[in-house]
Amino acid sequence: MSFHIKTRSQDIQADVRMKIIMLSTVLCIALIVKFGHAQEIQFLVQNFSEFWRFAWEYPACEIRQCGNHGVREFSQCFLLSVNLSGSCRATQSSLYDYRGLAMNAVDGNLNSNYMKASCTSTQSDMNPWWRADLRRSRGIHSIRITNRRDCCSQRLNGAEIRIGDSLDNNGNNNPKCATIKSAGHSETFECGGMQGRYVNILIPGRREYLTLCEVEIFGTQEGGVDCL
After folding, report:
1. pTM (predicted TM-score)
2. Are residue 96 and residue 32 in the same domain, yes or no?
3. Are residues 62 and 169 in the same domain?
């Protein structure tokens, strides 16, 4: 016979998760009530259990207004615009040392001190790049990048974010979402629902070390409505 002992840490994690779920649900309802019509609010009430289920499954979603679409599309987009990074594969142009693995950018750890082994790093490559493989094409709404803070944050200046389905030139020829003009600690870049399986971050035109401490890719899960 085996027994499962619930630790205080697990209790705290469960409590934090529940608070996030409640906040996500309340915010979603508030936005729908504000932007929706009477029949759309009725739809929300009738389908509240679905809202709760999605909030439980995807608590780390982004809050966004999906144009002028009805509340049905808005609610699905809101709750299904989730961080896709956790299920992706990652690779990069080279490896600086054992601390700088490509997967460190999608490990869920926002620590921005390279010595803590939660950031990536290439060698000083010409046109260094990092790539996430989302396993299938997705609608990408935004990407949040956490930069290194213990030193050298300026290295990321001029980096490009590219999204698409091609692996030509290691994926670096795909359409561009944004350019990082002046890298800070953490910044979100809107990609407007660009479609793609691969998300690349590259520094074009110079020899540089590419270091990323976290890359959060927010997009539409399977079955969701891409309403951007």
Report:
1. 0.67
2. no
3. no
